[in-house]
Fold this sequence. Notes:
The protein is mainly alpha-helical.
Amino acid sequence: MMGERTGVQEALFYEFSLERHVPSGHLVRAIDRFVDLSGIRAHLKPFYSETGRPSIDPELMIRMLLVGYCFGIRSERRLCEEVHLNLAYRWFCRLGLDDRVPDHSTFSKNRHGRFRDSDLLRHLFETVLQVLSGRAWLAEKASL
């Protein structure tokens, strides 16, 4: 006899790993290998106040910007929605399933204010180019 599921019981505990749900060949994994954001907070420190509410992590904001640029998401509102919904984007942005995505208006204020004033995106681009050229040099030497 074919049974019908009559009641839905929420799981008390569950194990979920974003790492397991992002395919090894996904573009975000390739981007993640080349992007080093370790110095971003130090670079932006002069552009943040010592008083007031804690800010949104600038690394999260930059990772979201990279998702938008790489996947052609031009609207900040849409970008925030996509990061909220897409597991691969959450993984790349270092967001857990329960972590909140910044509001699009906060995202806009940072992109048009701090990030532009600090010349951060140029700095990030130059850093990525240095990493890539260093790897190309190593690969060339290894092939000789």
